[in-house]
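Question (not urgent): is this output format expected?
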Amino acid sequence: FNALASPGVFDYRHLSAAGAEFVGTAVDALIERIRLRRAAATTDTRIARRYIGQDGNLILRTDVQSGVACLPVTADGLPAAVTIGESGALATLVCDDNTSITTTWRAEAGRNGHLDFVIRRVQRDALNQATESSTHIYTLNAQGAVTAFAKTWTAEPGGYSVSLASN
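Got this back:
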């Protein structure tokens, strides 16, 4: 992926491992790594793991560095099919460090007849103040294949942000 923010070098990886097992349940483990190199000797890396059940529902999300685990208040997942103009919200994730994560999604008209599937996440502290947010945009063609990806992560308050996008 290309980095759209500067100065620094940004590295983004999204990996998946189908057929993993979590507490005796077959799951898909999704691993997301973001590495931010701010200066020659300073690197910040964030790795999150999401465990998705065979029914497509999120079971658990963990932050590898901090060890914080987040569970959805109810089982749900992203819709299997959407049309332009639809939107919704996923169950709030409640984390063991007294934070919470809310996720909304919407389907928008993209360029050249494509669909932009937009996912927005907001993390809040124990006082319900936003501490960070992210927006993921997946551009899908008529066959449902991802043709482009963009992500913006913003630290709140202060508004420092990092944006990444595919070619």
